[in-house]
Amino acid sequence: MAEEVELKLTASAEVLPAVRAHPAVAAVARGRMKTTRMVSTYYDTPDRALAAAGVALRLRRAGSRWLQTVKGDGDAVAGLHRRAEFEWPLAAPRLDPEKLARTPWHKLFARNRGAYRRIFATEVRRSEQPLAFADGTRATLCVDVGEIRAGRRRAPISEIEVELDAGDPSRLFELASALAVDLPLRVSHASKAERGFALATQASPVPRRARDVALAPDATPQAALATIAGDCIAQIEINAAGLLATTNSEFLHQLRVGWRRLRSLLKFAALLASVERVDPIEHELRELGSVLGPARDCDVFALETLPKLAAEFHGDRDIARLRLRAAARRRRLSRLARDAIETPRFQQLLLALGAFFTLLARPAADASGPTLARDWIRPILDKRHRKLRKRAKHVHRVAAAERHRARVAAKKLRYAAEFFAPLFPGKRADEYVTAISKLQSALGRLNDLEVATKLTDELAPREGADPGAAHAGGVVRGWLAASVAPDLKRLRDAQRAFRKCTPFWQA
Fold first, then answer.
1. Per the domain annotation, does 226 fall within a domain?
2. Nearest to 213 by CA among 384, 108, 77
3. Whole-number pLDDT of residue 462
4. pLDDT reported for residue 393
5. Residue 344 belongs to a domain with what CATH number?
6. HEC string of 20-31?
7. Which of 135, 240, 316, 396 has the most C-beta neighbours closer than 10 Å?
8. Which residues does residue 10 pair with via DSSP β-bridges, in sequence order?
9. How crowded is residue 201: how many other Cβ atoms within 10 Å of its Cβ?
10. In a domain, 422, yes or no
11. Domain end marker among 203, 220, 252
C-alpha cells in the first residue's frame, strides 16, 4: 500500500501550455517530459457499494501497459488530496479479484465478487514532467487533457496534478502558488472519480456542512489544528463551487459558516505560529468576510424574514414592493459574493491556507512547548467559558449591544468546544456542545432581528418622498419588534440550560 499525495488544479486547455513553460516549473524540472494516452475505466456494483464506502476501482491502459488500481477514501484540503492507493500491473485487460483480496477492503470486495459493472471512463492525454526541489523533495507534474464519458454524457478534463514522489508536500503548494500568481488556475476539490460518478448519476451539488473530525488522543496542538482546518477549508471550497454552479442560497450560508469556523480556528493557530505567517491570511479572510457577510444577511432578510411577514399581510402592495427592492439588493450582493470567489485572489487564499496548515502540522525540530492538544486547550476553554457565563448572566434583560457581545463570546466558545470535543469523548461533551449551540442560536435569532431592522431602515426609510415605502417600513418594524419577546424567552431558557452544564474538559 502507498499513500497517494497530489495537488490538483484546473485550468482551461488554452492555459495548460503556459503551465509547462512557466519559470517556476522550469526551475525545478528534471529530465524530459513524456506524453502518454491513458484510458481508465471505473467499476462499481449495481447498488454503488464501492462508492458508498469511498472506494474507487479502476482498470487503466497507459500506453501498452494495463494497471489495476484501488483507491480508498481520503481527504482533500485546498487541492491537496491524500488517499491510500494499491496498484498492480496486469497481463490482460480484465479485473483480477485475487489482488482485491489483499486490500483493507477485502470483505467489501468479497461480498461483491464478480458483480462489477463499468460506470464511466476517462480518456486523457497526459504529459509528465519529473520535478526535483532544492530540499530533495521529488514530484511529478502531470498535465491532463481529455474527457469523462458516462453513457452519452461527457465532461471535459483539463487539469494539473502535482504528484508527490518523496519529501515535503509544502513544496507542492509553493509551486502551485507561483503558478496561480500568473495564470488563471483553480484549486480542485473533486477527483476524476468523484466527477465521473457525479456525471454518471447526474448528481446535483450538495451544500457541505461542518463535520465531526476525529482527533487522535495523543494529537499535538499543531496536528489537531491542521486536522480541524481540513474540514473548515473543505467546507469553504465545496460551498464556493456550489455557489458558482447553482442558485441555492444554502451554499452561501454554509460558505459563511466555514469562513467563520476557519477564522475562529486561526485564532488558535496564532498562538503557535508567527505573526508574519498568520496576519496575511487573517487579512484576506477579513476581506472575504466583508463580502460574504452582507450577502448572507440580505439572504436571510429577503428569503426568510420578509416571506413570513408577507404571509401575515397578504395582498399589501407596499410590502410587495419592499420585497422587490430587497430581492434586487440580494441579487446585487450575491453577485458580489460570486465575483469574490471567482477571482485569482480567492484561489491564492486557498493555497495559502493549505500551505500554512501543512507546515503547521509538520513536527518541529524543537520539541519544547505543549505536547498534547487536550492539555493545551483546557485553559483556553476555561477562559472562554468564564467569559460567556459573565456575558450571559442577565443576557435576556440587556440591550442589543450587550447581547451582541454575548453572542460573540458564545460563538467563540461553541467553535472551540466543537473543535476539541473529540478529545474528550462522552455524554458530557455532547450535552455541553448542544447547550452552547442552543444559546448561540437564540442569540443569533435576536441578532437577525436587529439586522432586519437595519436593512428595513435602508430600504424603507422612516421619512422620504415615498409614503408607500414608509408604510411598509413601519409594518416591518412593528412585526420585528413583536417578534423579540418570544425570542427573549427562548434565550432565557437556553441561558439557564447552559449554566447547568458542567464543562466537559474539567476532571
1. no
2. 77
3. 81
4. 87
5. 1.40.20.10
6. HHCHHHHCCECC
7. 240
8. 159, 186
9. 13
10. yes
11. 203
Longest dimension (CA), the chain: 83
To the nearest 10°, the Cα dihedral for 144, 149, 154, 156?
Answer: 0
The answer to the question of residue 368 being in a domain is yes
Residue 231 lies in a domain: no
Grid cell 496575511 in the structure block, residue: 280
- Is the separation of the CB atoms in 181 and 155 below 8 Å? no
pTM of the model: 0.94
DSSP symbols for 382-401: HHHHHHHHHHHTTGGGS-HH
Cell 408577507 belongs to which residue?
Answer: 310
Residue 366 confidence (pLDDT): 60
Q: CB atoms < 10 A from the CB of 406, how many?
A: 25
The answer to whether 79 and 60 are in contact (CB under 8 A) is: no
> How far, in Å, CA of 253 to CA of 243, rounded?
10
Closest CA to 80 of 286, 361, 309: 361
Tell which residue, 138, 121, 118, 116, has the closest CA to residue 129: 138
Task: Tell me if residue 162 falls in helix, strand or coil.
Answer: strand
Residues with Cβ within 8 Å of residue 434, at least 6 apart in sequence:
none
| Residue-level pLDDT at 74 | 87
Domain extent for 163 = 2-203
Residue the block writes with cell 509544502:
170
Distances (CA, A) of 439 to 123, 396, 428, 480, 486: 53, 11, 17, 20, 14
- Of 279, 330, 321, 274, which Cα lies nearest the Cα of 302? 330
Structure-model confidence comparison of residues 367 and 409, the more confident one: 409
* Stretch (H or E) spanning 161: strand 153-166
Q: Given 3-state DSSP classes, what are the helix, strand and coil percentages for the chain, each rounded to the nearest 5? A: 55, 20, 25
